Amino acid sequence: MAELKPQGAVSKMLNAAWVRPFLFLVFIVVAWDLAIRLFRIPAYQIPAPADVVAVLRTEWPELLRQSWPTTYATVCGFLLSALFGIPVAMLIAGSKTVESYVYPLLVFSQSVPKIAIAPLFVVWFGFGIIPKVISASLLGFFPVVVSAVQGFKSVDPDMVDLARAMQGSRFRVFLAVNLPHALPAIFSGLKVSVTLAVVGAVVGEFVGSNSGIGYVMQRSIGTFDLPTMFAALVILALLGVILFWIVDRIEKLVIPWHVSQREDVIFAS
To answer: Cα 17 to the chain's mean position, in Å?
Structure first.
């Protein structure tokens, strides 16, 4: 018989999803500060946490303004990677011929550093938002395809045959069997993709931009303003966490029936 394990108020608070990462983050910041003090690391190499916090407090409006172009490029690139990645995965999983032609080329494309081809996007599309969106979509495309292919290929053939035996059309069988079974793997790829899209957007801003968090970081490196650079890294980390959380919430709404979305249950005899 399954029953929920009783928990006290303090234990329940410590087991909250946000508390443990926060406590670990506090531990990292304290260790960071102690390491600087113990080893006497100069500020031009690693800034103190207090200096980074001071920049976040004083420059927050500017950092927030610069984060909007990065967020826009990230979201657009992520949506493009999902829009094209899932249909490509369906083709690869559904056809051995397509897989033999396309899949090796996708794997080969991942060995090409995106920072090396990002300048080409600036040459072709200028210094606007398009190169950043393309760079973000390229980094997020491969995880979506790989995870979705794995999800579609893991569908039980007996379930598909049973659905077709019940006079189900190909489209209805896909909606009733293939797609629901592949959704957990698809969302796993989407969660990886959305964090990589942040990296892709910043890569595009490094190459050619006069706005965005990548531009702030590049400007800070040029002037050796390390506190501002670390503050920009904090903004990027927050952006990645927020976007990951949004995709995770959507996953819980779309596939609440999956075992990964159930509450922890303790089985007692």
So the answer is: 18
| Residues 58, 62: Cα–Cα separation, whole Å | 9
pLDDT tens per residue across span 19-66: 777 888 889 989 998 989 888 888 888 888 998 899 989 988 988 999
Predicted model pTM: 0.83
The tokens for 268 are: 């007692």
Phi and psi at 244, nearest 5°, equal: -60, -40
Question: Burial, 11: exposed, middle or buried (Cβ in 10 Å; 0-12, 13-18, 19+)?
Answer: exposed
